[in-house]
Amino acid sequence: MAETAADATASTPGQDPNRRDFIYIAAVAAAAGGAAAVAWPFIDQMNPAADTLAAASVEYDLSKVEPGAQVVITWRKQPLFIRNRTAAQIASAVKDDHADMKDPATDASRVKPGHAQWLILLGSCTHLGCVPTEGGGKYGGWLCPCHGSVYDTAGRIRSGPAPKNLELPEYTFLTDTKVKIG
Ligand code: FES
User: Fold this and answer.
1) Residue 92 confidence (pLDDT)
2) Each residue of 19-50: pLDDT tens digit?
3) Which of 124, 134, 142, 149 to mutate for ligand 1's pocket (most ligand atoms within 8 Å of CB)?
């Protein structure tokens, strides 16, 4: 039978016990490392698939977004707009709640109660998926550079070929300044 590292240390007479202990520990550590290396491919196979990871939720600290500004983060492999709307932008959207629209929705239905300043949207034009530009267009919301769809400050489609409002992701407020998306 092959002699193990531990056996080898045990069969060396007169050796310093501390040195023997060290060799023994080193041998066990090396064996454990080898086992981990062998086990890794199996453990790795048990990791969630890439598409599952892509579906994971993200938390975002809203205090990073200045009033009137927008940040774009990546979520589920696509851009997500987080916009800190000013009072004027909110008022402009509310004023048009009953305007003639392709995809009618009130401003209040596009935000969470008590958090009207925060508009969180998928940054993907509902026409063919381009990323709309913030602040463009007649309504000060977004303008899609691809074919000219215009969204207002609630992300509602107001003109151009896009058929629907910018999509709202699922999200919840964990605190007044932190959201969990997904
Ligand atoms: S993709 Fe936005 S208008 Fe066509």
Assistant:
1) 98
2) 555 445 455 445 544 444 444 444 444 455 55
3) 149
Q: Distance from the CA of 122 to the center of ligand 1, in angstroms? A: 14
Q: Annotated catalytic, 127?
A: no
The active-site residue, picked from 98, 115, 127, 147, is 147
What is the C-alpha separation between 70 and 103, in angstroms, rounded? 23
Strands 58-61, 70-75: parallel, antiparallel or unpaired by DSSP?
A: unpaired
Q: Which of 159, 167, 154, 120 is nearest to 143 (CA)?
A: 159
Question: Domains of the chain: which residue ranges?
Answer: 5-46, 53-181
Instruction: Report whether residue 161 contacts ligand 1, using a CB cutoff of 6 Å.
Output: yes
Outline where 11-63 has alpha helix (H). 17-46, 50-54
45-73: per-residue pLDDT in tens? 445 555 555 568 999 999 999 999 999 99
CA dist., res. 96 & res. 101, Å (int): 9
Whose alpha carbon is nearest atom 3 of ligand 1? 147
- Asked: is 53-181 a CATH 2.40.33.20 domain? The reply is no
Our answer on whether the CB atom of 136 is closer than 6 Å to any ligand 1 atom is no
pLDDT at 53: 54
Tokens 């400050």: give the residue. 153
